Amino acid sequence: MKPARRKMPILKLAIFLSLISLLGTDAWAMSSEANSIANTFLWLAILLLLAKISSLIERLGQTAVLGELLMGVLLGNVYLMGIDLVEPAKSDQVIAFLAELGVVILLFQIGLNTNISSMRKVGIPAMLVACIGVVLPFALGTYLVGPWLLPGLSHNAYLFLGATLTATSVGITARVFSDLNYLKSREAQIVLGAAVIDDVLGLIILAVVSAVAKVGSVETIEIVWITLKSVLFLIGALVIGNRVAPVISRWFSKVHTGGGMKFSILISFCLVFAWLAQLIGLAPIVGAFAAGLVLDQVHFRDFAEPELIADIRRIAGSSDPETAQRVRQTIAQYEKHSLEVLLEPVGHFFIPLFFIYTGMQVKLEVFFSTTTIITALAISVAAVVGKLLAGLAAGNTDKWIVGWGMVPRGEVGLIFAMTGKSMGVVSDQVFSVIIAVVILTTLITPPVLTALIRRSGKLDNIGQ
């Protein structure tokens, strides 16, 4: 009986918030053009609440990202039932901008969570898995399944389709590894390391494809130059940024050592690097990722620690030695990720907007065609096969686990697809097919990966 009591409040809350959303859409319908800013405020509230409701999908073993995407698809297609109230939100420029800012923040967070030293330690297997897992799906999408299943599109559209298939959303895989206490295994380390390299290679490909789409040319010399420019930008950001960041941080700490100043430096670095990337012809998300790679907690050692941490440290000082030691270890773990923690509230606001807004751009009527459904399934198969073949390069380990660990496309694939759509290169049909691929690869990976790990018989041998 107790589990039933726990579920009822959640169900009631979901129904209550849904009613609020419906009331909000009625208010939208009754408002005038003069209240467009107020309407935007209302829609932001509705979208954020619906994004949180969609996290109920986690009870089914799926990720919140998938729930936000599906909620966006549902919301963006209510017009098929004759309800047009959502249409203004789909074309709201403020919401579109905030969604774009959300993806910049997301890539910044990924950069902050990426450890350059760990990239050096993963070794040859992770590098091979990453390279094959990028090159093979890209070739399949651009030169085989794209032209075969979607004939008549521009070459740039095929390039974006191939680029989308290169992506790997390691967050989904990492969650499965974590839940099974499998993170310390050799397979998990290869997947996690390969995913970091995969992100870097994928962003370079996105930069190349985006630039080619802008200039309308695919000449080899231009592709080489764009690739070189991307690599030089990332290397330059690391080299110069690591020298500049401590100086800037030290200077601003003389003005104020509080969390507000620290946060301002974080966001400013992200936005400036995004601007620099755009300035030289790269996608802003490449700059945001580079900014995340540059910044490290050590750059902020001149700033005061949060009052709560200082209070805990003082209390621990008067505790028994064992408790004091455990508290110090906990604080040290927090300090290692304090920049990510500081940025989290911003991410909670902007990032769900990106995913739900992306889902709203999907047009379900394109799937009324049997041909489109078959195309989406076939491209999904190609997306899976490309990563499974990459797993063969994993060396002396379980290649199936490594391969399936690289399968989910998730948020990275969505970023690529949305970039292509915003540039006018990716049509509604191709965009919807890509979303279907993202959903399918995200849905099938957790159960398959869990079954493979359990069947491997290695769980008992992995360190706690």
Total E-strand runs: 0
Give the count of structural domains: 2
Structure annotation, total helices = 20
Kindly report the CATH topology of the largest domain: Na+/H+ antiporter like fold
Main sheet record? none
Strand content: under 5%
| Rounded Rg | 23 Å
> Separation of termini?
34 Å
| CATH second-level architecture of the largest domain | Up-down Bundle
- The average pLDDT value, as a whole number, equals 78
Shape: globular
Helix content: over 70%
Write the layout of secondary structure elements.
Blueprint: H1 2-30, H2 36-53, H3 64-76, H4 87-90, H5 93-112, H6 116-121, H7 123-149, H8 155-166, H9 170-179, H10 186-215, H11 220-253, H12 259-279, H13 284-294, H14 307-317, H15 321-336, H16 338-360, H17 370-391, H18 399-405, H19 410-422, H20 428-456
Describe the structure using short key phrases.
about 475 residues; Na+/H+ antiporter like fold; mainly alpha; 2 domains; about 75% helix; 20 helices
Summarize, please.
The chain contains 20 helices and no strands. The protein is mainly α and 464 residues long.
Any overview of this molecule?
The protein is mainly α. The protein has two domains: 2-91; 100-461, Na+/H+ antiporter like fold (Up-down Bundle), CATH 1.20.1530.20. 77% of the residues lie in helices and 0% in strands. Helix 10 crosses helix 18 and helix 18 (399-405) runs antiparallel to helix 20 (428-456). The longest helix is centred in the middle third of the chain and has 34 residues, at 220-253. The chain is globular, with a radius of gyration of 23 Å. The two termini are 34 Å apart. Residues 1-8 and 28-32 have low confidence and may be disordered.
